[in-house]
Every structure is written in structure tokens, then in C-alpha cells.
Specification:
Elements: H1 14-26, H2 28-36, H3 40-72, H4 85-114, H5 116-133, H6 139-158, H7 163-170, H8 172-187, H9 189-206, H10 233-236, H11 247-257, H12 259-272, H13 277-294, H14 301-305, H15 319-338, H16 342-363, H17 370-398, H18 422-432, E1 441-444, H19 451-456, E2 466-472, H20 476-479, H21 482-494, H22 509-526, E3 529-535, H23 538-546, H24 552-563, E4 567-573, H25 585-588, E5 593-596, H26 602-610, H27 638-646, H28 650-667, H29 674-687, H30 689-698, H31 702-708, E6 717-718, H32 723-731, E7 735-737, E8 742-745, H33 748-756
Parallel strand pairs: 1-4, 1-5, 2-3, 3-4
Antiparallel strand pairs: 6-8, 7-8
Helix pairs in contact: 1-2, 1-3, 3-4, 3-5, 4-5, 5-6, 6-9, 8-9, 11-12, 11-13, 12-13, 13-17, 15-16, 16-17, 21-22, 22-24, 26-27, 28-29, 30-33
Length: 758
């Protein structure tokens, strides 16, 4: 299109002039920007040219309007209307120049104050008004004509261009009445007020483009027509100030039909169109709801709804809570996906179905579009969740015994067979409850005796006033450097403070000690204690030997144990304190109490094998689904034999139980008989080769192993004369007294491994 500053009165510029006038009507900001790049004198000439290009259409509008109002409708005029057509036409020709002249004069005057573009539009507006009424104002009809004409024309073209005009429009009703009173001085108070009210009504209709509401229904009735959206006023006119009912539905349908163009249009309206912004936000919410309704992977729900708009008005007030509820559904699905065993998946799957049903019920009470759109989406989620649940039920119906036993990593009591070590927990509780403060604890137990499992499952078995920080020295962040160790250990210490008030992580031993002191004061004020459980603490000794940690670390630990009585240091390890060789640990932990983690008693083994998931919270909603094994499942004296074969060594009990359940399921056997248990023991020796080798040979010195290999031929051996061998084997709980002066291996499963694979 021809540039604005090149518009003149030449006939070939007529089309461009009309285009620029149309732009001034629908995109005044763009018109103003183009005009601002033109010199003022040239801008005035361009304005006059545009005015004169529009003049024929203005004359036609004036003629048609006057004929409609004063001839066809017969409204009253103080100046009589000529009867014959010739005189009627001359009457227009006589009066139009007066209106145009006054319009141009007013336009230039307004242009000086408000800008050339505004001046041009005011000139056109006043010219049309003057042309219609001939400036012979009088009577009710004339007042209505002036009000409607002025309001429509001036409101259409000037609204939104300049802040001054916006302020002026804010007082439109009062201004209209004021005009009415002024007119009433000459023509009567009643007539003047009517004129003022008419002007106010006309302005109220025209300023926000309310007349577009007449054509709006064709985009909806009898059905949505998203292909027509480009013809909707919002698509091409920037000054529609009246909300269009149902526009969000049209925008959403258009965005689904033309995704790229639709999203660009939504962005444009949200960013630059305040009057229609809420409709665009509702449309965006509809699109997001429909997208999550099509999702087949429920774990992605929160990722998608994260872009749902939030705010303080209308439906936006409800979106934050909606996001939280959907996030809970997605998290539940992720936990379900993380499970590997059907019997653990089933309660999580049932919980997911329940969450979606509750969400579907609650969302119905939300304002539109949230209520209808997300209820429909939740219906699709429910179908997916129920299908998952039914599939799991089918698997469980075919799987006679759930595999809950696990021989390997520390046990998670929520998902795997677990029993609390009540004797050990009771001793810990007594130490933590000392009125003067606990002087530290050394938790000692041989490998695979369940120390790490105990530490990771302390929550719920100690008083609620005890905070727990469980840390493992096998974590690379714990032993790479002193700085990393301080940062790692300080995390549970700093967690004593609310997140917003948390102190900085320490960068040296002195700053860490100060942090411990501040933490101790806070714990004392709140009546709490902090248990810092350091698992595999032997690695600290090893890092001391390698020079990674300074000896000052042990000095700091000793001082903290003695000073910070609300902070309890617990050191868990599979080596006795005298086995640590790189520091004089007994002198640093001289006041610490030693608590041993023993093997399972027969009662504990029975509880593990019959009520393995007793302490899992996954089945609190439905106790009937909690996995249990009746005594008869393990066969006659089966539990006693498992206890004897493993000597209650927790890892080995889990290993044998796991193998028995696997064999029952493979062979479709209803219970464990003596033959199956024999097979399970044989299989466990092979499956548990690594741990059995480590327990018997991996921790043995050459002298220890030289003595142990004697069990390949004999069931009992003379007690070793070598003091180091004697202490080592006793400390490692490998042997027990047999006949006088002889030892035998404590664990028959270890003896079998030694003879078959050692």
C-alpha cells in the first residue's frame, strides 16, 4: 500500500486514501505511528487530502441520514423540509459546506492540542454531524440526531488514540447532560436534558463499538464457525471495548483449526487487547484442558497445565488450586510407574482412580471454562486409570503370591518386607531420652545385618520430637573433600530453620561448629532433638588415612558431642571401633554408647515371613489387600528351618524367603514343602554367591581364611591359637561354640557355600 506521506488528491491515490482511513478506524495506533513520521505541514496536507477523498462518501452519508431521519421517519425539524426533490437536494448543498467548514476548523484546532491524526478525525466527525443537522439545533429530534451522530462518529475514530481523549470520555454522561442544560437555556430545559441523555447514550454505544454485537451471533448460531474468525471485529478492529459473549469458544475452535495462526492470535489479544484479554485467557484455558484430555500418559498432566494462566479475577482465581490437584494426580501416576511389582502397583492404582473421581466431582463447581472442560478431561483420565487398575487386578489374579522379600539394598518398608528391630530401637530411644543429652551412639553390626535398613526407617519409631538426618558415607558428595562433607552434613542441620530463614551452608570447620551451636539453641527452645545418623562411618577413617579429611574433623566431632546436647551423633558401621586404624577413635568417641544390631530372633523371622508389609502405609486405605503369608504357607517347621539355615542373618533370611516365593510361583505350588525348601537353599547358595563370599572370605585375612577352609572337611575345628584370628572370627560373628574346645560355623548356609563354591 502507498505510504501515508505520499497521499494527495490525485485520483490514483483514492484507493490508498480509503485504506488509510480504514486503518485509522480499526488500527489507530498504527495510523498514528505512520503519521508521526511525517513532517507537521505535510501531515496537515495529508489530513486534508484524506478528508476530501472521503467527502463524496460523507455527502452520501449525510443525504441518506437526513432522508432517513427527517423524511422517512418524519422526525421533527424546526427548519421546514422542502417538499419537492429539487429543493430538497439544494437544501443539502446549502447546509453541507457550513458543517464541513466548521469541521475543518475544529479539526485543525483539535490537531494542535491532541495531534494531527486526532484533529483529522475530529474534523471528519464534526463535518458529518454538521452536515446532517445543518447546525440548526432544536427540538427533541435534532438533539437525538446530534447525540447519535456525534457519539458514533467521534467515538468510532478517536477512542483509544490518546490518553487525553480517554479522560474526556470518562465524563461522557455528565458532559452530555451539561450540553443538554446549555441547549435548554435557549430551547427549553426538557429538550436540553433529552439531548444530553441522547448524546450520552450514543457515546456509550459507539465508543466501545457495541454495535458489533448485532453481527456477533452469526459466528455462533446455529453452530460455531471458526473458519469465519478472520471476519470477526476482534480480528481486525483494535478498539472493541465490549466483551463478546462466547468469544473464547470461537477463539479456541479457531486455534484448534489453525494451531499456529490461532496461537499467534491468542498471544496478540492477551498482550495488546485489554478489553478482550479475558476471552483469550478463557480460550487458552479451554485449549489446555482439551490437550490434557487427550493425554494418554497421566504423569505428564502437571507439565501441560503448568502454562494455565493465573490471576486475581474471575476463573483465574481458581487455576492455582486446580494445578495443585492435577499435580497430585500426575505424582500418583509417577509413583505407580516407579513400582515394578504388581501387588505394590495395585494400591497406588486404586488411589489414582479415587483421586481422579474426587477431582471430577470438585471441578464441576468451578467457573467456566474450568468446570466443563476439565470435567470432560477428567473423564478421559478416569478411563485410563481404571484400565490400568483392571489390568493390575488381572495380573494379581494370575499371580498367587506377591514377591515382597528382597535381599540386597537397604529395605524400603513401604514396598518391601520389613520388621522394626524393637530391641535396638528401644535402646536408641532410651539414649535419646536422657535428660542430660545423649553422648553419642555407635551403632554396630556386621555386614548385611540390617543397620542401613534400620537407619532409613527410623521415622515413626522414635518420638516425634526427634528430627532425623540419615546420611551415608558411601555418597561421593560425602567423601570427596571436607567442603563437600560439611555442605552435605549441614543440610539436615539447616533444615531445622524454616526455608526462608535458613542460614548459609558452612565453608569451614569453625563455621560448621557455629552453625551446630545455633542449631542446638533453636532445638532447645523448641523442645526438640536432632539425630545425625552417619552410616558407613568407617569411610571417615579411610579418608583420614588418605589425607582428604584433617584430624581436626574428629576434634570438632568430639567437642560437638560434649557441647551440643540437643544434637545426637550416631555412627553406624560394620567394623568394631578397634578395627579403625587411621585415628584413635576410642579417644574421640570415649563417651559414646555402643548399640549392637543382632541377628533376627526366631520371633522376628516369623513376623517377617508372615506379616512382611505390616508397617507399609500403602495399604492403610484397604487392609484386606495388605500382603500376608499364613504359617501354613511355609510348610511344617518351615520357618524354624529357615531360621536355622540362616542363623537369623537378616539378609540371608530375605534371600531364602525370596527364593521360596519365586519357586512357588514358577511351579504353581500353593505352599513351601520340605523338597521345595531344599531346592530354595541350593538355589540361594548360587544366587547369593556375592554376599556369602564377602561375609566369609572377603573380610578375612590370610590367616583367617587358612583356618576357615578347614570346614570344607570337618563340621567343627579346634579354636585357633592365633589371637588375631581368634578375635577376628569372634568379632565377625562367624563361629559359635561346638563341643569342648572346638568351634563350628554359625550359619549353615555359609558352610554349604564354603563346601560348594568356596
Amino acid at each position: 500500500m502507498k505510504p501515508l506521506d505520499q497521499i494527495s488528491l490525485r485520483p490514483r491515490d483514492h484507493r490508498a486514501a480509503l485504506w488509510w482511513l480504514g486503518l485509522m478506524y480499526r488500527r489507530p495506533a498504527q495510523f498514528q505511528e505512520a503519521l508521526s513520521k511525517t513532517r507537521r505541514l505535510r501531515a496537515i496536507l495529508v489530513g486534508i487530502a484524506l478528508y476530501l477523498h472521503f467527502l463524496p462518501y460523507m455527502l452520501l452519508l449525510i443525504f441518506a441520514s437526513r432522508w432517513l431521519l427527517f423524511v422517512l421517519l418524519g422526525l421533527e425539524m424546526l427548519t421546514p423540509v422542502p417538499a419537492d426533490w429539487l429543493a430538497f437536494g439544494l437544501w443539502h448543498v446549502e447546509l453541507v459546506p457550513v458543517g464541513i467548514a466548521l469541521g475543518i476548523a475544529c479539526g485543525i484546532a483539535v490537531g494542535i492540542a491532541l495531534g494531527i491524526a486526532n484533529g483529522i478525525t475530529q474534523g471528519i466527525a464534526i463535518g458529518i454531524v454538521g452536515g446532517i443537522v445543518g447546525w440548526n439545533i432544536g427540538g427533541i429530534a435534532t438533539g437525538i440526531v446530534v447525540g447519535i451522530a456525534t457519539g458514533i462518529v467521534v467515538g468510532i475514530i478517536t477512542e483509544g488514540i490518546d490518553p487525553v481523549i480517554g479522560i474526556w470520555f470518562a465524563g461522557v454522561i455528565g458532559g452530555g447532560i451539561a450540553v443538554g442544560i446549555a441547549v435548554g437555556i435557549d430551547y427549553g430545559i426538557a429538550v436540553g436534558i433529552v439531548v444530553g441523555i441522547a448524546i450520552a447514550i450514543a457515546f456509550g454505544i459507539s465508543i466501545p463499538r457495541a454495535y458489533y454485537l448485532v453481527c456477533h451471533p452469526i459466528f455462533f448460531w446455529p453452530r460455531l464457525r471458526p473458519r469465519w474468525y478472520s471476519y470477526h471485529p476482534v480480528a481486525w478492529d483494535d478498539l472493541c471495548g465490549v466483551p463478546f459473549p462466547g468469544l473464547d469458544r470461537l477463539l479456541a475452535a479457531y486455534a484448534e483449526l489453525e494451531p499456529m495462526a490461532g496461537q499467534q492470535e491468542l498471544t496478540r489479544i492477551i498482550d495488546t487487547y485489554p478489553a478482550q484479554r479475558m476471552s483469550a485467557l478463557r480460550a487458552q484455558a479451554r485449549l489446555i484442558a482439551r490437550e490434557v484430555g487427550r493425554v494418554v500418559v497421566l504423569s505428564r498432566l502437571d507439565e501441560i497445565v503448568s502454562s494455565l494462566p493465573e490471576g486475581e479475577k474471575g476463573f483465574l482465581k481458581h487455576t492455582a488450586l486446580l494445578k495443585t490437584e492435577i499435580s497430585a494426580i500426575a505424582s500418583c501416576q509417577r509413583r505407580l510407574d516407579a513400582q515394578t511389582r504388581p501387588f505394590l502397583k495395585e494400591p497406588e492404582s486404586a488411589l489414582l482412580v479415587e483421586k481422579i473421581r474426587n477431582f471430577q466431582s470438585r471441578i464441576s463447581g468451578n467457573p467456566e471454562p474450568l468446570g466443563s472442560e476439565f470435567r470432560k478431561a477428567a473423564g478421559q483420565w478416569l478411563k485410563i486409570a481404571e484400565a490400568q487398575y483392571n489390568q493390575l487386578r488381572g495380573i494379581l489374579d494370575r499371580e498367587p503370591r506377591p514377591q515382597v522379600f528382597r535381599a540386597g539394598d537397604p529395605v524400603d518398608r513401604e514396598q518391601e518386607a520389613f520388621i522394626p528391630r524393637f530391641e535396638t530401637l528401644g535402646e536408641l530411644d532410651r539414649q535419646l531420652s536422657l535428660a542430660t543429652g545423649c553422648p553419642g551412639v555407635i551403632l554396630y553390626g556386621r555386614r548385611r545385618m540390617g543397620k542401613s535398613t534400620l537407619i532409613r526407617n527410623l521415622e515413626g519409631f522414635l518420638p516425634v520430637s526427634v528430627r532425623i538426618g540419615a546420611l551415608s558415607m558411601q555418597n561421593p558428595e560425602a567423601f570427596t573433600s571436607l567442603g563437600l562433607w560439611l555442605n552435605w552434613v549441614s543440610e539436615p542441620v539447616r533444615a531445622v530453620w524454616p526455608e526462608r530463614d535458613r542460614p548459609e551452608a558452612p565453608d569451614s570447620l569453625p563455621s560448621f561448629f557455629r552453625l551446630l551451636g545455633e542449631c542446638n539453641k533453636r532445638l532447645e527452645a523448641e523442645g526438640q532433638r536432632l539425630l545425625l545418623a552417619i552410616d558407613e562411618y568407617e569411610n571417615i577413617d579411610r579418608k583420614l588415612g588418605e589425607g582428604v579429611f584433617p584430624m581436626d574433623l574428629l576434634h570438632m566431632l568430639r567437642e560437638s558431642i560434649q557441647t551440643h546436647r540437643r544434637i545426637v551423633w550416631l555412627f553406624a558401621g560394620s567394623h568394631a571401633i578397634e578395627e579403625l586404624i587411621h585415628a584413635e577413635w576410642p579417644s574421640y568417641l570415649i563417651s559414646a554408647r555402643t548399640v549392637e544390631v543382632p541377628a533376627f530372633s526366631e520371633a522376628e523371622t516369623r513376623l517377617l515371613l508372615t506379616e512382611p508389609m505390616r508397617h507399609s502405609r500403602l495399604f492403610e486405605r484397604d487392609e484386606s489387600k495388605r500382603p500376608r503369608f499364613e504359617l501354613g504357607f511355609w510348610g511344617e517347621n518351615g520357618i524354624a528351618r529357615i531360621q536355622a539355615e540362616t542363623a537369623g542373618w537378616p539378609h540371608l533370611v530375605q534371600l531364602l524367603a525370596e527364593t521360596c516365593v519365586d519357586l512357588c510361583n514358577e511351579r504353581q505350588r500353593p505352599l513351601v514343602d520340605a523338597a521345595l525348601l531344599d531346592d530354595a537353599i541350593a538355589k540361594a547358595v548360587t544366587a547369593g554367591d556375592t554376599v556369602l563370599r564377602q561375609l566369609l572370605k572377603g573380610e578375612s585375612s590370610e590367616a583367617d581364611w587358612a583356618w576357615l577352609v578347614g570346614f570344607r572337611r570337618l563340621d567343627a575345628l579346634p579354636i585357633p591359637e592365633d589371637e588375631a584370628v581368634f578375635l577376628s572370627l569372634r568379632r565377625r560373628w562367624l563361629v559359635v561354640d561346638a563341643e569342648l574346645g572346638k568351634w563350628r560355623l554359625r550359619v549353615p548356609l555359609l558352610l554349604r557355600w564354603l563346601r560348594e563354591r568356596g
